[in-house]
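Sharing in case it's useful to others searching the archive later.

Someone asked me privately for the predicted structure of Ankyrin repeat-containing protein, putative, so I'm posting the question and my answer publicly. Question first, with the sequence:
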Amino acid sequence: MITGWRGAALAGNIEALYASIQEDGDVLKRVDEVEFVDTPLHIAAAAGHTDFVMEMMNLKPSFAKKLNRRGFSSLHLALQNGHKETVLRLLEINKDLVRVKGKEGYTPLHYVTREGNLDLLAKFLEDCPECIFDVTIHNQTAFHIAVENNRLAALRVLSKMLKKTDCCQDVVNRKDKDGHTALHRAAAKNYPQMLKLLLACKADKNVTNQAGLTALDVARGQVNNRESINILGVCSFAGVSTLYKLWQLIVKFLAKASIEIFRDMDSISSEDRNASLVILGLLLTATYQAILSPPGGVWQGQVSETRLSPPSGAPTSTSTPTHSKKSRNMVGTSIMDPGEFLVFYLTICAVFIVAFFLTLGLLKPFPRGFKTALQCAKELSAYKR
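And my answer, the predicted C-alpha cells:
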C-alpha cells in the first residue's frame, strides 16, 4: 500500500497523492516552504512519471524552479535520467525552465551541451533562445562547455542559433573566470574545426586572457598545431581587426544613408537635378585632381643628399640630419607628412566616392537599380550576422 506524498511520487500514483492531500491539506505548502528539498515533482521527474509530473505542475508550478539538496531542479533530474518525454512536457508548460541554474550554475542547456544531446539542445534553443546567454559560476557559456567536452556537433548547433541573434560577439567573446574565451579553449585543445566555427561566429582573435595571450599565442604552445596556427594566423593583428570593424560600420551607414537619399531623388525636379549634377561634376573634378596631385606634390627623380641639406651660407647645426628622411623620400611618394597625407587622402576619397554615386543616382536610369542593389547588400549583411 502506498502511503504519503513521497510514496505516491515514487510510484507515479496520482490517486495516492490526493489521498495524502485529503489527510493534510497543507502538505504541499509545507514542502514548498523548505528552501532545498526533493519535492514530489523532483521525485516523479527523476522516475519519469510524466502524468504525475503534469499533475504536480498543475497543483504546484513553483516546485519546477526549486532545487533539491544536491542542487538540481526537476528538469535537471529528468535530463540526467534520460526521460525525454518528461522534459518536453515540462517545456510545454514553462519554457523558461531551461534557464533554471542548478549546481555550479549549470542550466539544462549546459547539461545537454556537455552530453551532446543534439535533439534537446536544438529544442531548448528554439523554445528559449535567450538561454544561450546564460553562464555558469565559472562564467562559462555553452560554447566553453562544448569546446571543453569536445562536442563539435553541439557547437555547430549553438553557432547556428547564435548567428540569428544581435549579440553574437558578446556571447562568443565572453571570458571565463581565467579570462579565456571559447576560442582560447579551442586553441588550447588544438581543435581546428571548432576554431573555424567560432571565427564564423565573429570570435575576436585579438582578445587576450589574464596572462595577456591571444588564441594564436595559446595555439603556438601546443603540439601538432600547424593547422590551428594557420586558421588563427590570418589577419590576426589588432589594427587589421579594428579597421575591419570600422569598415563594416562605414558600409552599414553608407548603405542606410544612400537608400534614404535615393528615395528623395525620385521626387526631385529637373531644374534641381541639373543644378546638382553641375555641382557634383565640379566636386568630382576637384577631388580627382587632388588625388592625382596632393598638396606639395610628390617626390620627383632621385632625392640626393644635397637636396636634403640646407643651402650654402645658411646656418647649420652639427646635429642636422641629412639621411633621417631619405628612407621615405622615394620617387612618387607625397611630400606631405605620412599621417597628414593619410587623413587628406581618406577625406578626399570619401568625398569623391559620395559625389560619384550621387551623380549616378541623379541620372534617370540608375536610382531604382541602386536602391535594389543596396537593399540586397543590406539583407546579405544581416544574413551574415
